[in-house]
Amino acid sequence: MSHRLRPASRHARALLKRMTLAEKIGQLTMITLGDQPTGPIADPVTIAEVHAGRVGSVLNLAGPERIAQVQALARATRLGIPLVFGLDVVHGYRTVFPVPIAEAGAFDPTLWRETARVAAAEARRQGIHLTFAPMLDIARDPRWGRIVEGPGEDPWLAARFAAAKVTGFQGADLAAPDALAATAKHFVAYGAAVAGRDYAGAEVSATSLAEVYLPPFRAAVEAGVAAVMPAFSDIDGVPMTAHAALIAGRLRRVWGFDGVVISDWDAIGQLVAHGVAADLAEAAALALRAGVDIDMVSAAYRRGLPEALDRGLVEPEAIDAAVLRVLALKERLGLFEAEPVAPAGPPPAAEAAGRRALARHAAERSTVLLHDRSSLLPVGSPRRIAVIGPFARAAGGGSDRIGPWAGLGDPDQASSLPAALRARFPDAEIVSRVGVDAHRPGRRDIAGAVAAARQADLVLLCLGEPADWSGEAASRAEPGLPGDQPALAEAIFALERPTVLILTGGRPLIASAVIDRAGTALMAWFGGTEIAPALAGILAGDVPAGGRLPVSWPRSIGQIPIFFAERPSGRPFAPDNPFTSHYLDQPNAPHFPFGHGGTPGAFALSDLAVAPVTVGPAEEIAIAVTVASTAARAEDAVVFVFIQALKALPNRPVLELRAVERVALAPGETRRATLRLPAAALDRLGDGAVPEPGRYAIRVGLDADRSRHLVAAVTLETR
């Protein structure tokens, strides 16, 4: 592994020798001084503690003037140690990009890096040093609200997302004026929450932990991530904030991570509620011994560590080691040098325009065409467009376009869909009616919406879930269309007008009847600042909807959890045998498979060739396939390469993703695409994986539907 431990600097060790115990613990204490709490504040700490040198980092404080004032207090203390200022810059700071689950569906690492780079530059310019992103939790249960913040269901994809986001946020030098320290979270298996309920425990096997949930974090460490945040949840009864085997053991000793570990909000104090600590002293000792350096807002370190020392629960050396890691981060951020002063006023017009153009490109690349059964796209030149539904508002509602965790993005800067349509279709009459409330039944004017839609050439039915129903603490037992939205949809469909369904949300929405009734269905997710112009361009045919699903989309709640990489059964489904793995009342298959999207029938794959057919562990496999376009416009085919180990003990999933290639094709163009896969990619994803000799199937397709794959075989030999 290229990542190596860095020894503490002479400057850091000199500072450590001069510190009192209170000053040391202060460096391990993160407080909130801002207006964006993400949980209850167990022990409010005032700014006087900063002035006394008993705080090391601050979160949720925004605005360069306010940050500079608080930083000046820290620099005026006895030792003059500066503060780290952190904020949740998840999918943008001022310019808001699509939420992570949407952007993951772009299958485009260059885009992931670019959007993180812009977010980092905007935030650092305003005095922010550290972001609590990327979130790398594998999520296979759309009931869990935080599925919106991560890269979906697949560990291979999540590992590439991790590397791209860490590189984008941090750049080559954390001290640069456009770099943010990244935090990989939530270590680990937070997305496996029981029943999809936030903060619940996780039931995962050792194999799943190693091969599914850990690989994205290892990729982040190998990319040089500055910080890691443990999950709120537990594994096998051990809360992650106290999990020494995984933090001090796997993360630090095995992987060589030498950055800081930051607790989640009040997570150390919550070890008492978990039932593993009797008081704050025990909680603080458990977390510190596990390897957690910074206590976020619980004050467990501030109030508990002195007593833990007196009771012999922790050693002074453990505190010193954590302090040195915090000081090393501050050195890497260049905080001991004079920080640049943020330029006054907004960025130059050209710079702002470039960022909005990137946001629009990201929205186009992330929007998924679920189906176009009525061939409505492009929509031509309609004379009257009715924009119907709770996400059709001509004014307001911007937070439902930019989504949760939108940094300091201004919802009013995200234009509405009616406004974007007027700009793109200037000769059309645009009418909009909300019809129903986005949240709950009862507040409705379905008759008014139907009247507006009756005379339209084209109806855009804008349904989904609001931003505050997605994200942290937003688990849903029934992740469908809230309130009276299904009734509104039924009334609109009864008109038999050409109807495009546009879904907004942060998770796959279980609404099969509504989705299938629409002539065309698009998943816009929470697409960010520029989602409305992006949708207008997609409808007009200026650009295709470039996204593909990074998760399997269930037909019903009963299928959850659902994902393509399930392990083989001794009785796999067979249609002519009732005693095989299946449901009596619906198909096993999801409504839409992982990787689904793009213009229906636009691409065909043929002539798969793999060479050599017998490889050694250090060799490379060339995978060639012909990709043909029948589309009427330029569009990318997204080609997926899966592997399948035909024999292994323990067994392996029926599909494992190992490569993705976007192939840009002109209308009617045919290209021979070649992907090169190292033979080592046939290994399991977990730590210490070794090449398993034997036969492997190489499966190539446009999504994870195995029935449509081209298949070839290779044999791996040990040489």
UniProtKB/TrEMBL annotation:
SUPFAM superfamilies: (Trans)glycosidases (SSF51445), Beta-D-glucan exohydrolase, C-terminal domain (SSF52279). Gene3D superfamilies: Glycoside hydrolase family 3 C-terminal domain, Glycoside hydrolase, family 3, N-terminal domain, Immunoglobulins. PANTHER family: LYSOSOMAL BETA GLUCOSIDASE (PTHR30620:SF16), PERIPLASMIC BETA-GLUCOSIDASE-RELATED (PTHR30620). Keywords: Glycosidase, Hydrolase, Signal. Residues 637-704 form the Fibronectin type III-like domain. One of its GO terms (molecular function) is beta-glucosidase activity. It comes from Prosthecodimorpha staleyi. The keyword Glycosyltransferase does not apply. This is beta-glucosidase. One of its GO terms (biological process) is glucan catabolic process. Its EC number is 3.2.1.21. It catalyses: Hydrolysis of terminal, non-reducing beta-D-glucosyl residues with release of beta-D-glucose. InterPro entries: Cellulose_Degrad_GH3, Fn3-like, GH, Glyco_hydro_3_C, Glyco_hydro_3_C_sf, Glyco_hydro_3_N, Glyco_hydro_3_N_sf, Ig-like_fold. Belongs to the glycosyl hydrolase 3 family.
